[in-house]
Structure formats: C-alpha cells, structure tokens
Amino acid sequence: MIILRGRKIKKVFGKKTNTQEVLKDIDIEVREGEFVGIMGPSGSGKTTLLNVLASIDKVTEGMIEINNFNLQKMKEQKLAQFRREQLGFVFQDYNLLDTLTVKENIYLPLSVGKVPKTVAEKKIKDITTLLGIEDILNKYPNEISGGQKQRTSAARALVGNPSIVFADEPTGALDSKSATALLSNLEKINKEKKVTIMMVTHDPVAASFCSRVLFLKDGQIYSELYKGEKDRKQFYREIMNTQSVLSGDGYDA
Amino acid sequence: MAMTLNQLVLRSMRKNAKNYYLYVFALIFSVTLYYSFVTLQYNPAITKEIGNGMTATILKAASYLLLFIVIFFVLYANKLFMNRRSKEIGLYQLVGMPKGLVTRLIAIENIILWLGAIILGVFMGFITSRIFVMILLKIIEKDAFVELSFSIEALLRTVIVFLLLLMVVILQTAMRIRRVSLLSLITTTVVADEKVKKFNAFQMILGFIGLVFIGYGYYLSTTLLDLLDDPTLTPDKMLIQLLLILTLTIGGTYFVFRFSVALILNMVRKSKKGLMSVADVLSLSTIMHRMKSSAMSLTTITILSATTLGILTLAYISYYSADAMAQDSVSYDYVMYEDTGFDLIDEFDKEGIQYTRHDLDLLAVQADVRPLLLKEFALKKDVSTLLTVQVVSQKDIQNKLPNLQLKEDEGYIVGYDSLSAENIRLESEKPIQFITSTGTDEIFITEVTEESLVPNYHNYNFITVIVSDFYFQKLLHDPLNENQKIVGMELKEEDQLKKAEEVFEENKVSVEIPYPSGLATKTVSVESQEIYRLDILNSFGLTIFISGFLGLAFLIATGSILYFKQMSEADEEKGAYTILRKMGFTTNEIMKGIRRKQLFNFGFPLLIGLSHSYFAVKAGWVFFGTELVAPLLITMSIYIILYSIFAILSAGYYRKVVENAF
C-alpha cells in the first residue's frame, strides 16, 4: 500500500527577481513499511523535501498525499491535528523540551488525544524498552547523553503509532557508536512494527540501514537504490559508488 | 577599516530597532514623568493655589520618590536590554573587536538614544504637566486657572538627573563588557535553570517559614492600632514594630516565591507521574524551572504593587470620605447655633433660595455605656465608660429617619463611627444608663449605627442617642443637662448650592458661646457642609494627587517590567514552541498553556500584593477617613484592570512568538 504520494512537487524560495528553485517537479511514492533514505550534496534540497513532505513547509506547486489525505487541501488547524496524529519527527538537534523529564517528553504526543492513562503508560513502557531507555525516564535532558537524547526523541516520534516517521539527520550530532545503536533500533522497529520511516542523511553508513535510498541533485531525484536481499556492507558500497558518480568530483560529505 | 565606528553604530541601531523600542519607551516614559512632575514642583502658582505650608515639602519628598522609581526602572530596562543583546556583543568580540571599542560603540548608541529620549520626554512632559494640573484642580474642585510656562529650572534638573543616570548606565555596561568572558556572553540567554528533582526537606521548611513570616507580619499589623494606646510606647518602639512587619512580609514573600512555589508545583508535577498535558508543560514545568531566577523580580513586583495599592487606597479613602466626613461634622447643608446666623435665613428668603428648616434640641447628658459593651470586648484600664453623650428627640430627627418608632424606654444610637469603635465596642439590644438628678435611667438601645445624622455639638465625634419624645421631655427639664438649640437647613434644589454659597460667604458670623460652667467660651459659627467638604479636599487634595501620580508611575513601571520580562521569556522559549508546533500542536493549544502561565506570573504577585496592601490599609486607615470598603474595592478594581492591560499585552506578544515559531 502506498502511504505517501508526491506529484510534481515544486518549491521556490525568494521573491520576484531573486528566486531560487529548490525542488523541481519531484515525483515520489513511499510504500507502507519502507525505510527510505534521502541523500544528496548540500543544497540539493533534501531537507526542504523532507519538510514539505512532513507538512512543516508548504510546496509552491504540486500535490502531496499521506494516507489519502491531501496536505494542500487541509487548513492550518486540521494540518496540525493531522501532524500530531499521523506523523512522527526526529531531528538532528533532538528537539527535546529541557524543562521536561524524558518520560514527560515522550508523553507529549499522547497528551491531547483521548488515550487513557493506563494505555499511555503501557505504550511508553513498550517503546522505551524497545529503545533501551527505560531506566532514564525520570531524568532531565541535560542529564543524559546525546545518544540517549536521540533515542528519547525517537521514542516520542514513535509512541503515538504514526503512519510515517520523518527523521532529519538523526545521527548528525552523534558519535559513531551511538549512531549505529540508534539506527539498529530504527531498523528493528521498522521491521518488527512495520513503521514507515523517511530519513534525510548525508552519512552513507546511516543510509545503508535503509531499504531504499533516493539521491537528490539540484532539486531533482537523480537516482535511487534498493537494498533488496543485499547485506548492509554491499549496500553501503553501492551507495558510496552512486555518491561519487553523483558528485563527479569533490563530494562534500 | 572600511566602515567607521559611527556607521557601524547606525547600522546596528537600525537592525536592533525591535530591541530598542522597549528600552526607548522606558526612557521616554521616565523623562516624561519626571519632567512633568518637576515642572509642577517649580511652579509658584501651584504652591499658591493649594496654599499650604507643607506643599513645597510634600512635592519635594515626592520628587525624590519619583526619582527612585525612575532610577530603578531605567536600570532594570537597561539590564534586560543588555541581556537581549549579549549575543551581538559577543559576536563583535568574536570577530576581533577589542573590548574598548565595543564599549565605545554601546556608549555612543546609548548617548544617541538617551538624548533623543530626553528631548522627546521633555516635550511630552510639558504637555502632560498641563493635564496633571487640570486633574489636580479638578480633584480639589477649584476653578482656578494655572498658567504653566516652560520651566527652565525643571529642564535643567531633568537633564542633570538623566545625564548622571546615563553615565551610570554607561559605566555599568562598560563594567559588564569588561568583566564577562566571551563564552559566557554568548551563552547568557541559556538560563542556568535549577532543576527541581528531589524532594528537599530544607526547601520545604524554608517555604513553610515564608508563609509563617507573612502570617505573623499580618498579625502584627492588626495589633498596630492597639499599640498606640500603650502608654509606654515610644517613637522608636513604633518604628521597630513597623520595620519588623515590613521585614517579615517582604522576607516571607521572597521565601514563598523562591521555595514554596517551585516545591508545590513540583509536587503537582510528580502527582501526574510523567503524564502532563501540553498546558501543564507550558505552565507548570516552565514556571517551576524559572522560579530561581524570577523569585527576586516577582518579589519586587509584589512589594511594589502592595505599596502602590496601599498608598492609592489610603489617599482615595480620604478623598472618598470627604463627603462623609463633611456630612458627619455638618449634618445639614447649613447649621446654625442658638440665635447665631439667622440673618442668613432672611438672606436666603430674599434671594429666593428654597430650603427646608429643621429645628433641633441637642442635650448633653452624662451616661454610662458599660452595659452596652460588646461582651468579648476587653476595655482598657484607663478608658472610662462614663461619658457625655448627645441626646436628641425622635420628632426632631423624623425627617431623616421616618420609619423609626421608639417606645418610651427605647433608644437608637447614631454616629458610632470607626474611630469610636476602636476605643469602645458597643452592641445593640442592651441598655444604656443615663445619669439624671433623680438617679439613673436605663434606656434599651434597639440599634447602633454609623451614620451621623445630627450635628455634633456636645461631644467631638462620639455617639448621639435618639430617644422618644416623652423621655426627651424628662431629660430636657433636668437641670443637669445642657441644651443647645440648633437649626439645620437643607437646600431643596441642588443647583442652588452655588448661589447659596455666595450668600453664605457674605453672611458668615461667629459668636462666642460660654460653656455652662461659665469659665470658658467656645467659638461657634454658622457652618456650611460644602465649605467643610472643600476644606477637606483642599488639605488632602495634594496628597491624593501625588499618591495618584506616584501610584501610576509605580504601576506602569511594575507592569512594564513584568511585560519586558515576559517578552524575553517568550523569546527564550521560542525553541520549545517550535518543537511543539512541528509535532502538531496548534497555536491555540499552546496559548492555552501560556495563558495559564501568564495567569500565574501576573496573577500571583497581584494576589499577594492585594493581600499585603489590604493588611497595610487595615492597620492605619482610620487616620485617613471614615469609609474603608468602597474606596478599597474601587482602588483595587482599577488597579487590577490597569494591571491586566500588561498581562493582555504580553499574551499578545506570546501569540506572535508562537505564530512565528516554526
């Protein structure tokens, strides 16, 4: 089943005389249960693409549908509600609220819905156990490590059973060990719980955890790679090759 | 260097316009207020019109108080202003600008801002001082015209004061830039917030002590009046008591803000077991984590609010009571004694002024009020219950109390005012004992009321007993009692008051009346209620005006500080709003939590301030007037409304921040 569908997505920044076309007629489809990576050099528009797909930014032209809801046709209020109920977010800088404990942060997406407290408790317990942060629930963000922060952020994105999770450079601020741990966790959750994940990254290692990787260049999809039956090492090599072809010389990642 | 320092200053000023407008507002407001007040102070017409030896002294004292507010306000605004710009200053240093140059840059900026503010403020102050004079004359109900010329003296003084203040500000800034390292300059906006994690018994105790302090301070304030009756009281002792009350309440307030609030909120948070709604997130936990840094300013705001409210209420009590006090002392529009001033009646007839005439017999009778005392009331040793009370016959007072029906042995007390009540507590349904030449008569008192319906002639501001006509005749014929015939005149048409006053002015007479003992005389004149009222207004008018003026200055200063503080809090929390909005919370949902936070930030200091001022006013109001409840409620309501404006403004700012946070 196709969960996300984008048609002729165009995004233009700037006004009148000084405009810049960041996304040029992108068509994209994501099936349920996919783990899609988006790669590309700086300025290729990968974060912009993620933002418009995630309804954080508006497209200039084109259409985006998630779970058969047309994002362009929804009003601000409705869109917010949609985001809360159907989408999950993980960002590079964690985006945790400093004044809340880990548990309070994770509970946030559930707080407006009509989730009974006992159910909420169970959901929090399940997801934190899965991510291995069940022991730090009462700590504040400034008391835990970067890896733990990002896992908290992931737990918050996943706790409401979203249709799709958007991750923008989730490993960008992590050391390689924490990064690998987080990605293994995401991969596991993707496989076991059939959660659809879309992740922007510039790190080929991170991308090698995905089931499919899209390459963006100058606002267009340049190529895509499927992992298929390959193991992670093989897939990693393929990604590296594509990257060097893509950049010609001096790929900046 | 391609760009000169001046260009850099101008460029950065243009870029910072948003940060500046608050600071500039604070400056202009301060100059305006100060200049207009000093203009009044140096205007000879004012001192002449309100003609009172104390006028100059009061104005001078008030100008110092105003100066204090202005200094406090400007320095605070500067501090916030610098906080908001710490990143920019850090950046200048980061690109290699020496500290001296940065200081000079900020200094030049300040000088430009201040000069602009002084010019604009003086101009506005010149206009507002006229408005203030009009208000002042309106308060004391004078039709006089006061010419206000541009006062060079006031200008000079304002300029000197603000230039000195500017130097202090520049010095402060320079020291700040010198002292602070690059790293900390860049990170000051990240508030080092205290994380309330564990249940701390010590904090709990301190929080509790805060409450006890306030409670004990309140208790002491209620005993302040009794202290006045203590024969061993010295001014020093009184001062110590006052200082003790102030220390207890101010210290207690700080403790409550610093320890109790965070503790209680943390307990509420814990009880939610990690499952908090967004509204809780934005109110409860934010407030809790900010308490350490905001305890001091919230305490200051509470105390300032309490002071302002106290002063305003007391001033308003005297203004409000002017009518009642005039009514108490002169119960009819005009009162004449014996055969004094009957010319006035003829003149009124001649001028066609409509009036009703009431003839009264006022008796001075010795009475013992001991049986009337409130059961619980402990009479002080040296207070005698054997007193002179004024007695009037029911028929003489029929026009004012048409429904009063008294039996032969019944009485009705009027004029039992708050000051009498402080010394002797009476209650109805008990007898009073009149001393007559044949023994004592017990008269059953049906009611004790505050209203003063009868001119007070025989005893200054103590009770008057209304008795039945039959019993009155008995007292009247008793040689022990002194009788005074009085004529009260009530104007029929309110709009004839002005004319009547003119007639009265021309026919003012006073006579010496001998006391029954024959040893001394007292001067009695025809009295006019209107003149009495204007006298009160005139003597309190300036105080009322100044308190109103200072009160307004305090209110705007505290309100602005809270507003500024909320603005920077909103800016600091923008990141959190961005996160929440990305997660799919709507502006309205976020605003719900913010409004709750605002309710606390504005409401809590206000509530404690109201409570403080209530006890302060209660402790001393009897010296200012006769009415407590109405002026207190009116002042508080107006204050709450004006104060709410700042809360609404800051909520508006928050909404803008949340809407832009994405």
Automatic annotation (TrEMBL), chain A:
- Mention any Pfam family matching this sequence: ABC_tran
Keyword Glycoprotein in the entry? The reply is no
Which GO molecular function annotation, any one, does this entry have? ATP hydrolysis activity
- The lineage's top-level taxon is Bacteria
Query: InterPro entries annotated for this entry?
Result: AAA+_ATPase (IPR003593), ABC_transporter-like_ATP-bd (IPR003439), MacB-like_ATP-bd (IPR017911), P-loop_NTPase (IPR027417)
GO CC entries: membrane protein complex
Q: Which UniProt keywords apply?
A: ATP-binding, Nucleotide-binding, Transport
Annotated ABC transporter domain ranges read 4-243
Question: Gene3D superfamilies in the record, alphabetically?
Answer: P-loop containing nucleotide triphosphate hydrolases (3.40.50.300)
Please give the family membership noted in the entry. Belongs to the ABC transporter superfamily.
Q: Which PANTHER family match?
A: ALPHA-D-RIBOSE 1-METHYLPHOSPHONATE 5-TRIPHOSPHATE SYNTHASE SUBUNIT PHNL, LIPOPROTEIN-RELEASING SYSTEM ATP-BINDING PROTEIN LOLD
Supply the name of the protein: ABC transporter ATP-binding protein
